[in-house]
Amino acid sequence: MRVLISTAIALVVLSTSAWSQEVRQPDLKGAAVFGKIAYDKFCAACHGINGVGTDKGPPFLHRVYAAGHHSDESFYLAALRGARAHHWQFGDMKPVNGVTEKQVEMIVKYVRALQLANGIR
Ligand code: HEC
Asked: 109: CA distance to ligand 1 center in Å?
């Protein structure tokens, strides 16, 4: 009985997290390698390591952020000018301090590779 209850609790916890499957790591090449470093530094605090999201920001491993829905341009705009909350309940995103356009370009390459590796296209 006790085992059943703790299993049930574990399942509830999993289903409320943003991305409950194991993240498949893309084979990163070129700029995407630096993109991951910049992503981890500037974006992961809210969008999560591996893009799984946190309690401060949405996951990029979500079809809402697939290339056809959120263009690369929306990443520049969000990082450099901030973004109004409209898809979720996290509040607005402020412009990210200290990130450069060049870094965002590499971050986009990394996020796209991560999405593709996890079936988000
Ligand atoms: C302090 C937390 C925080 C950080 C750091 C952060 N974001 Fe966000 N981001 C958010 C929140 C909150 C949203 C709003 C989600 C919504 O409701 O639409 C968001 C939304 C976005 C969106 C979607 C914008 C749109 O047009 O819908 C993009 C793209 C994005 N962030 C990219 C980035 C990138 C790239 C970085 C790193 C350079 C970054 N974010 C760092 C919190 C953050």
From this structure: 16
Mutate to test the pocket of ligand 1, among 43, 63, 65, 93 (most ligand atoms within 8 A of CB): 93
pLDDT tens for the chain, 121 residues: list them. 666 555 555 444 444 446 778 999 999 999 999 999 999 999 999 999 999 999 999 999 999 999 999 999 999 999 999 999 999 999 999 999 999 999 999 999 999 999 999 999 9
CA angle 69/121/56 to nearest 5° reads 60
Tokens of 89: 């309940």
